[in-house]
Amino acid sequence: MLERRTKIVATLGPATDGDGMLDRLVAAGLDCARLNCSHGTHDELRQRAAAVREAGHRAGRPLGLLFDLQGPKLRLSGDVQTQTVEVGDVVTFSATAKPDAIKVEFDKIAALVTERSQIVIGDGVPRFAVERVDGEDIVARAVSPGPISPRKGINVTYARPELPAITEKDEADLALAVEMGADFIALSFVRSAADMQQLREMAVALGSKARLVAKVEKIEAYEALDEIVAASDGVMVARGDYGVEAGVARVPLMQKDTIRRATQAGKFVITATQMLESMIQAPEPTRAEAADVANAVIDGTSAVMMSAETSVGAYPLEAVTAMATIALAAEESPLILGRAKPTPQSQTSHAVMQAAVELAEQVDAAALVIPTATGGGARICAKYRKRRPIIALAHAEGVADQLTLEWGVYPTTMETADSVDEMIETALTTARDWAGLEPGARVVLTSGRRTGTPGATNLVMVREIP
């Protein structure tokens, strides 16, 4: 059981509905299910969220549930005439319908543009440099060729903050996520830490304790990465729209740097978009895709994610199986990059957990065993990317579900004990039964003088499994 450290996220959709497919995905290695709020009705999302909870109970293990909010998405009007532009062509974009202009479905489109802005259509082409703004019109010159067609997505790089970070649709979807008890809520097109602070205020006001994920897919987000990481519980390297904005050549180094900086801060990071894209229609990945997944694992990503591969693809089970197999093989690398470096800690609990990680290495412990009220201790240990399994024994089912994206953490639940001695004995037997540890195996166990109390961990001990 204690094998693969990197977690697997799969997007649910029509391809995963019915016929026991979700149970098979869980058996194949699924750790967290993603619901993309850009697709499907609220009733469909409710049904899939409920199915995730039922599948987790049937499997007898925690299973994460992630709601992915659409965020502010710009599109061309449905009345736009299909055409192909060449380099050097001058095009006018406008918020209103005009004979010689391309209409954008956002009435403040001209106010978004700055002198650094480019306008990008679809998946990256065509791309336009802005020449000037005339009232509601943007006059731009094509710097790369490509097609323009109705309802195509549009990106404005280095945009002014005229778009709302959280739209009315996002507010409705957020309420649904809270209703269904989402463990993770991701926000698309994050531009600043303030966007994540706004999401947190709204989620808390609705009574949610979900972990919040910032999707890094805007140039502005990457430039403000440290502040966004600090305001979030985790980040997603959303390579699709970032590649559209910055160009595909900029994606690899952004991915590696984001993984490194998020890990240093002790935040989980999901690498996403086109990881096994060919498996939408093929039962086996390409060699390049296998290398892409492996490189993300070696970079130290906490999780790898599939989108259309599982939601609408012809081979969802094969995709999850392939992802698990590739990740496990990549973890044989002698060095996992991006790991946090041990540094002096001002908080006692952080210092204790850092010491526990080092002690487990020195005594060659079979595992770290961490009873936890909030999951904080396990998260601290995960950022060091040691190969020692971290067995997190959460006092609440929701906390265990929220640990399903943490690298090398194997969560389950354990009742809160009345005394420290009882807690230690219960933790050892629970770890033995849950993780299949052999009697006599040496483990490092952390504890506090008060059981079930957040932030009270101040003891580290070496014990043997009974």
TrEMBL record:
**Residues annotated as domain Pyruvate kinase barrel:** 4-320
Q: Recall the taxonomic lineage recorded for the source organism.
A: Bacteria, Bacillati, Actinomycetota, Thermoleophilia, Solirubrobacterales
**Broad class of enzyme this protein falls into:** transferase
Q: What pathway annotation does it carry? A: Carbohydrate degradation; glycolysis; pyruvate from D-glyceraldehyde 3-phosphate: step 5/5
- Which PANTHER family does the protein's record reference? PYRUVATE KINASE (PTHR11817)
What is this protein's record name?
Answer: Pyruvate kinase
Q: Which residues form the Pyruvate kinase C-terminal domain?
A: 350-462
Keywords (alphabetical) are:
ATP-binding, Glycolysis, Kinase, Magnesium, Metal-binding, Nucleotide-binding, Pyruvate, Transferase
